[in-house]
Amino acid sequence: MQRRSLSAVIGGGWSGLWQKAKAGAHSAAVENRFVQAFVAKKWSLLLIVMAFLLGRAMILEQLSPFALAFIAVIYFTRRDILHWVGIAAFAGSLLSLSSNTGYLVTEIIVFLLIQKALEKFERSDLSLAPLLVFSSTLLVQLFAELVVSNLSWYTLMMVSVEALLSLVLTLIFIQAIPVFTLTRKNYHLKHEEIICLIILLASVMTGTVSWVVGPITVEHVLSRYLILLFALVGGAPFGASVGVITGLILSLANSNAVYQMSLLAFSGMLAGLLKDGNRLAVAFGMLLGSSILAFYMGSGADVINSTWESLAAVALFLLTPRSLILTLAKYVPGTQENLKSQQDYAKRVRDVTAGRVEQFSEVFRQLARSFKQLTTDDAVSRKEEEVGHFMNAVAQKACDSCWKKSQCWDQKFYQTYTYMTDMMTQIEMKESMTKKNIPPEWRKVCIRTDQVLDVMKQQYGLYKNDLHWKKQIMDSRHLVADQLSGVSQVMEDLAKEIKREGQELFIQEEQIRNALEELGLSIHTIDIISLDEGNIEIEIIHQYTKGFDECRKIIAPLLSEIIGENVAVMREEMHARGEGYSTVVFGSAKEYEVETGVAGAAKGGDLFSGDSFSTVELGNGKYAVALSDGMGNGERARAESQTALSILQQLLQSGMDEKLAIKSLNSVLMLRSSDEMYATVDMALIDMYNANTTFMKIGSTPSFIKRGTEVISISANNLPVGILSEIDVDLVSIPLQSGDILVMMTDGIYDAPGHAVNKEMWMKRMIQEIDTTMPQDFADCLLERIFRHHHGEIQDDMTVVVARVEKRQPEWATFRWPGITRMERPKTVS
């Protein structure tokens, strides 16, 4: 990212700044590599120490399944330190309570031989490591027992148990070791992976069995220290789990420490219950738990020794750097650090995505500018160039074979060029010019006047045709430039939306959660997607009671009071397990509601009508009522009108400007077919928040608004889409009022009274006489009157769409709860 920003600086000409930044970037890269190398060496040293302890670790005083499993996983994950890990495991086995060095060395050799053989056949993979460890352990142990002639059912069972333990431990180490090898990039571990990590650490601690410092046993100190760490990070569940696992593994390593399992589990649970305090509270919980069970299970000396061990663990715990605890917390699911790391990662992904979208937006914007530059070059120079080509073509065809060519074009160039230009002007003014219309002075100059006239008329026809197609190309470029600009604007809005979703809204979510829980509601999760005015979107998962409808009666009114804007239930989904949790999406309640009704009939009572209609909410707070009349009648006209409405609806839903959407629709319809197919478009976009309505009328009949006893007419004079390559779009904006009835119709209804009658006045009177305010009844009544006027004959496709705008009445009033304050909305991302 740094180099990319510096390249922009280079493009601006800041060469000096570039040199400084380059040097700074190089030093930062060197420093970063040094830090990474230091961290890698630190983790490598830790893995070598773990190998030493695992080489010494044993179970039941005779089984040692840890070392080979650890070395096998290191072979696949960190082969660069494999020899150091092998030496450390060998040294640990030399210091073990039972001499097993020969077995370990032989098992490692057998494992490497089998692995090299598999690599020859390209079958080597980490997933085969458990089977390789199992096979190596089983073969070596069986061969050793056969050599000493000591094979019995007991020894066979113990050999099988050790081989199976090696297989299981290999599977566990595969999950846990990547945490220490820097191959795990994301800070998110599953609960199973956390358990595998705890088993690995507990297995390492078994390597300290029989290490004593005065009255203190080292493995007891380390196990309690591990419990303190996980209890502080994960709470009581993790504290108890770590206690059970470490106690179990330590009791397997030392049969005299069976009581440690219950002591550690109880201590971890008490320590985890006090995690909301601080380190001292967690330490106090562990001390309390270990002391209680030590008094119950042991003698006075055991109690004193256990207390010293607990105090040593607490001392190590208090000296532990905060950075280590925060790093561990990032891996544990459910912790605030883990959630924050995931949110930081999601925020980085959103920022990168928004940046990419902005780059694409800028690319489309630059393309639009380049197309516009191509079409806005100097028109005068282009005109002179085209005239020059025209003159050259005429001179080549008419004058090349003339014996006076040198006299006309070399000696009298300007005079000849002027006469040719004058003749071209006359032909342009009068294409039917004949030889009789040639000026007398031109006949005196040119001996091939008739031939020049014929060639010039022929070339002018080609020139005129060329101008026509050049204009078509220019118009197409203009349209492409406008469409690219519209796409760029849509992508820029999308980038802003992505950035807006990345805002931190934790404070607002907690405020809503506290307010709802004070009312006794059981809230599982709250996700605030948007808090923009008029575009609120909040998703809540809560526990519901069948028949109570808490989301509409309690949650929505309370959210309206907290946010300061009417909030309603947009979508509700019950979970499949009967009475339980439901997911409810709350959004901004619209200030106005639109109710629609449609009535129509096909020409002659046919099955298919050429008219199409659409009533849909666009998703941006606007409601679209649209009507289209395809050319002619029948199925093909219906397909044309449906296509026009579908394309226009999708363009508007994508966020494209209304005028640009109409122009894009016009170009699509022109390119779909070479036939003369066009369609009228009559659309009303009603803003659901303030009832402002924008009318787009493309070749359609007038629409009418009935407001009480008054009828208002809305009309425009645009041609239908699909006829001309360039159309003028006139948008008419009118604010509607509550109770207004909008009537939109096709020409089959509007032309019903005939040509001898003032159609607009006749339709106004017809609409005034209809008393009903229900949209469907209104549409049916108007269509019925048209039928009666024509005595039941249907002369053309007829469709009428009626929409009534009403002020929305909230289903439940807001209420104020004591202690609840108005929410402070975050600043909108610009």
TrEMBL record:
EC id: 3.1.3.16
Uppermost EC category: hydrolase
Superkingdom in the source lineage: Bacteria
InterPro entries: Bact_Sigma-Reg, PPM-type-like_dom_sf, PPM-type_phosphatase-like_dom, SpoII_E, SpoIIE_N
Membrane spanning stretches: 43-75, 81-114, 126-144, 164-182, 194-213, 225-250, 280-299
Molecular-function GO terms, alphabetical: protein serine/threonine phosphatase activity
Keywords from the UniProt entry: Hydrolase, Membrane, Transmembrane, Transmembrane helix
PROSITE patterns the record matches: PPM_2
Annotated ranges, domain PPM-type phosphatase: 595-805
Coiled-coil regions, chain positions: none
Pfam families: SpoIIE (PF07228), SpoIIE_N (PF19732)
Extent of the signal sequence: none
NCBIfam families, alphabetized: spore_II_E (TIGR02865)
The protein, known as: Stage II sporulation protein E
Organism: Paenibacillus alginolyticus
